[in-house]
Amino acid sequence: MEVTLSLIKELREKSGAGMSDCKTALVESDGDIKKAIEYLRKKGAAMATKRADKIAKEGAIKSGISENKTNGIIVEINCETDFVSKGDDFQNFAQSIADTALNNKSDNVPLLLNAKGTDGLTIQETIDAMMGKVGEKIEFKRAKYISVPDGFVATYIHFGCKVGAIVGIKGKFNDEIHDIGKKISMQIVAMNPLAINRNGISNETIEKEKEIYVTQCRNENKPEKIIDKIVQNKVEKFYQENCLLEQEYIQEANKSVGDLLKEYTKKTGETVEVVDMVRFQLG
């Protein structure tokens, strides 16, 4: 069968591969579009083996939220170079993986690789096709799924898709509290809290901090009788800097994130509570 320009263009539209790759695939497949697509996927799978030792540290952080706002996902998809990661094809590809993961309500990456998207392809097949197209190692590194049946999920992905966050909030949904949820997600991206509140920080972490503070005091020749007090103050500051609800709100000085939620409750009479949060940074 003759490989015409229109046939090459049709394959390019369906696969996203380059014109020369599409022509080669069609020649090898005797002009059969389905076989040509399979050829391109196999090329991507072969590329995965060839580039297995390469480091994929660039890529994109993407998120998705269900229509009713009660479920959300955040994913990290990696490639080798910033050049590829910035392209629309890769960004759209990464978003499609987030959408498929959300539809499957899962963050189990090995299982998700076999999940099918709206195009009928599994995530692994989509990855193989993209690898064949860009010639780089691509990995579905991680995902986090959040479900808040009695509340909602909000997310924020920073410009450039290098870092993002997702937060789960328990309480009655409306546009105002959803906007606050997005701002809290922005807070998480900017300030990288370790936990929502003090209960989320382990005793082991605090004990290690205390050891550091005691050593610092002694290195500075502080009197032994005041070291305990200094350490207590430093631990308190540690909590304030690393617990989301105690952090100073980035959009208003002298107000904590917890104060922001309390103000909303006082204004509306609706109780809201941050119940989950995740922050992904590329690499």
Q: Average pLDDT value?
A: 91
Strand order of the biggest β-sheet: 1-2-3
> What's the SSE pattern?
HHHEEHHHHEEEHHHHE
Q: How many discrete domains?
A: 4
* Separation, N- and C-terminal Cα atoms: 46 Å
Can you give me a brief rundown of this structure?
By secondary structure, this protein is α+β, with helices and mostly antiparallel strands. The chain has helices at residues 5-15, 19-28, 33-50, 82-85, 88-103, 109-112, 123-134, 175-191, 203-219, 224-242, 257-268, and strands at 58-65, 71-79, 139-147, 151-157, 163-170, 273-281. The relative contact order is 0.12.
What does this structure look like?
- A hairpin with a 5-residue loop joins strand 1 (58-65) and strand 2.
- 49% of the residues lie in helices and 18% in strands.
- The longest helix is centred in the C-terminal third of the chain and has 19 residues, at 224-242.
- It has 283 residues and is of the alpha+beta class.
- The protein has helices at 5-15, 19-28, 33-50, 82-85, 88-103, 109-112, 123-134, 175-191, 203-219, 224-242, 257-268; strands spanning 58-65, 71-79, 139-147, 151-157, 163-170, 273-281.
- It folds into four domains: 5-50, Ubiquitin-associated (UBA) domain (Helicase, Ruva Protein, domain 3, Orthogonal Bundle); 53-147, Elongation factor Ts, dimerisation domain (Tetrahydropterin Synthase, Chain A), CATH 3.30.479; 152-192 and 257-283, Elongation factor Ts, dimerisation domain (Tetrahydropterin Synthase, Chain A, 2-Layer Sandwich); 202-242, Orthogonal Bundle (GTP Cyclohydrolase I, Chain A, domain 1).
- Helix 1 crosses helix 3, helix 5 (88-103) runs antiparallel to helix 7 (123-134) and helix 9 packs across helix 10 (224-242).
